[in-house]
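Example (one chain per record):
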Amino acid sequence: MHGRRRQALREPSVNEKEQNRQRVEKYCALNTSVMNLRAQSVFTTPALDLTKRLLELNTELHTVWNYRRAILTHLDAWQDPAERQRVLESELDFLFEIIRKNVKSYWMWNHRVWTLNSMPQADWRKELALVARLLDLDARNFHGWDYRRFVVSHMEDMHVAEFAFTTEQINRDCANHSAWHNRSKLLPGVLAKSGNAAEMLRNEQGLVLNAIYTDPDDQNAWLYHEWLVGIQTSDEDRCRMLRDKVAAIRELLELEDGDDASSKRPLIELVGALAAIDKLEAVTGEEKSECLDTLHTLKNIDGGHVGRYSDMIQMLGKRWELYQ
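Predicted structure:
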């Protein structure tokens, strides 16, 4: 995933099989011990230590995470704010080690959120620095992005800084879906605080079109542009953005061979944009012909969707009374 090669599996040796059997046996015994303690409602420090050992082996045991939270809230230290702070800071250290082993564990991130929400004094700046390090290692990790949104929500006046962060990440990798998604969450707030929303939207259009030129086959910039068109407040603005998109696609197709399979996505987007413009204002006869010719091209280069393109030709041909 994300450019990492899958390593070929090999048959384990007899010695390795025996070691694995012993590890499984120890794991099952530890799991049984923890579940028995939970069934007996044992909320002690030794029980907490056992859950730690078990979760270090398997981070996906949501029942054990729930039990661990129950133990923490039953400890005497929970009643004293200073002691609770100390205990939960230790919990964050434990979770950091878990992150290093399995960064994609839903239950671990859920427990970290709970830990921070339960702390008398959470250090949000420190958490932001931690998740920044994580995204430096894996910029597309949606767990990291989701957690970053949670952290930022507890900090003041971060909209502009976070918006700039998404720009940095998109410029680094325009195929980063999480960065585009986060940007869509931030843009309304940034626009509300901007002194010139129209200029900001023009800049957004420029960023998207640049990403499209960089990687025409990637869906993220196309989807973000569709979302941008959708949040416009007038048909005039929507039509303007769609015509800018059409002009950019035409230019892109001139730079490439617009009749081969590598141009499929831009051709599909060209048809979609012209059809969308037609719902807002009348398109010219040349644009109608261009749209239908493009659909015929798509039938030739994308054999898996011939029926779809044929239906679109028939539908648009009837709408425009150009029975092609």
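Caption: Residues 264 and 298 are 7 Å apart (CA to CA).
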